[in-house]
Amino acid sequence: MTSWKRDFASGLIVLGPILITLYILYWLYGIIAGVTPGLILDADVLTPLIPDGAFEGAGRTREQIAQFLRVVVVLTVFIILTLSMGYLMRTTVGGLLERVLDNLANRVPGLRVVYNASKMAAETAFGEQDSLQKPVKLETWNGLRMTAFKTGKTTDDDREVLFLPTSPNITTGFVIEVESDRITELDEDVEDALTRVLSAGFGDADRGRGMDAGISIDVIDERMASSPDSSQEDAKAEANDD
C-alpha cells in the first residue's frame, strides 16, 4: 500500500464514523425542527436582541435561533416527561395507568398489533440489562453456523424461540423455533454479538474497545519494496569495508 493510500485509509477510518454521526444528528435535528410548532417561541421575541438594522439577514438569523431554541425546549420537555413517566410506572398508579392503556390499545384491531410489537421492542431495547437475552449460535446447515438471539419464549413442545437477524440490517430477520440441544451458548454479551452482526462480520467481539481497537493497516517500506536486493548490497558493502 502506497503512502498516500495508507494515509487516506487511516484518515477515513477516523473521520468516517464522526461524519456519519454528525449527519445522523443533523437529520434528527431537521425532523424535530420540522414538527416543532412555532407557537412555542416566536422569532419576533428576539427582535430586541437582534434588531432588523443590526446586519444583513437579521430576520433569518432570528428565525434560526428561535428554531434552535424550540428544539431545545421540545427535547427538554420530552426528557422531563419521560423521566416522570418512568418514575410513575414504579408506583401503583403507574401500573394501573399502563393496564388501562394496554386495554384501550388492544380493543382496536389495527392498532393492537402495532402497539404490542412496538412495546415489546421498546422493552427489549431499553429495558433492564437482565431482560436482554443471551446470544447463541445455531447450525442452520451442515457446517454453517449463524448468530441468533434468544427471545425468552418457548413453544408448546419446549422449543426455543430465536431471532435470527440479517446483516448488516438487524431490523429484518427470521423468527425460528429450535430444539435446545442444537443451540450453542456464547460467552459474550449482546453488545459484542450485535457489533459482529452490524459490521457484517468485520467487527471482532474479542477485540478491545480501547486505543488498540480498529482496523489494522500494514505499513510497508516502499524503498524496501522497490529494491528487494538493497539489503544484500548493503551487506556486501559492509563486508568490503571490513
Low-confidence stretches: 210-215, 221-226
Rg (C-alpha, Å): 29 Å
Largest sheet, in brief, is: 5 strands, antiparallel
How many DSSP helices? 7
Helix residue percentage: 40-55%
Strand arrangement, major sheet: 4-3-2-1-5
What fraction of residues sit in β-strands? 5-15%
N-C termini distance: 37 Å
Shape: flat
Average predicted local confidence, pLDDT: 77
Strand and helix order: HHHHEEEEEHHH
Q: Got a strand count?
A: 5
Structural class: alpha+beta
Can I get a quick summary?
With 242 residues, the chain is α+β, with helices and mostly antiparallel strands. 52% of the residues lie in helices and 14% in strands.
Q: What would you say this structure looks like, in words?
A:
There is one protein chain. The protein is an alpha+beta fold. Helix content is 52%, strand content 14%. A hairpin with a 2-residue loop joins strand 1 and strand 2 (144-154). The chain starts with a helix and ends with a helix.
